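In this section we walk through a basic example: taking a raw amino acid sequence and producing a predicted 3D structure, encoded as discrete structure tokens. The instruction is simple. Fold the sequence below.
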Amino acid sequence: MIHIENLTKHFGKVQAVNDLSLQIPAGQFFGFLGPNGAGKTTTIKIMAGLLRPTSGRILLGGDGLNGFDIALKPQEAKAITGYIPDRPYLYEKLTGYEYVHFVGGLYGVPRSRIDDHIHQFFEMFDLLDAAHYLIESYSHGMRQKVVMTGALAHDPKVLVVDEPMVGLDPRSSRVVKDLLKQKSREGMTIFLSTHTLDVAEELCDRIGIIQRGHLIALGAMEELQELAKEESSDLRLESVFLKLTEEKESI
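The resulting token sequence is shown next.
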């Protein structure tokens, strides 16, 4: 469902992503971790069609090589993809209700279906009372919820998420985690980047760790523990992450 093949991205002399390859099957909840400046957001922006790779490619949808190349077939790839950025940009002179209708309209979602979607998600996110307020009056957490509602309006097959819990209170964070797990169980492929390691450990089926543009570790929690050469089966992801990234720094 997500096929990343020899992905490389340069910004002048800086190599943000270096020969990254990943295959993520349909329905998998994948966590993408790394220190600041490791190449996570660059990878995500290429996946979302906001940046073009220097070389390599990303295919979305289909089975392996049957997916849509985001650089060559952006409309087809974006039609099956939802994107939740870490810093949501919204049109502040629209209401939350109008924004989700605008996004849904871009994907050709029928108006009645968008209305049902808004009611379901705004009720879940406790936003019904603010649905017809201008977005300029929303808090960061409220904006994040509106972006999530819009990103899921067309029921995408692939969801790309960058730091979804930023600005959310504990109750809202729980709602979002439950929602993402539900979508994954229903067959949605989720690519999650986060610095909140507890979230990744709780939600993700498989995790990749990137550092200085290189993929340095990949696997389920038990496999990462083995890579970190730790014997404790209940070792937290934070310790595994720190050990793996520290080892690479020392090489």
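Looking at the output, two observations stand out. Residues 87 and 136 are 15 Å apart (CA to CA). The chain has nine helices and ten strands. In the next section we compare this with other chains.
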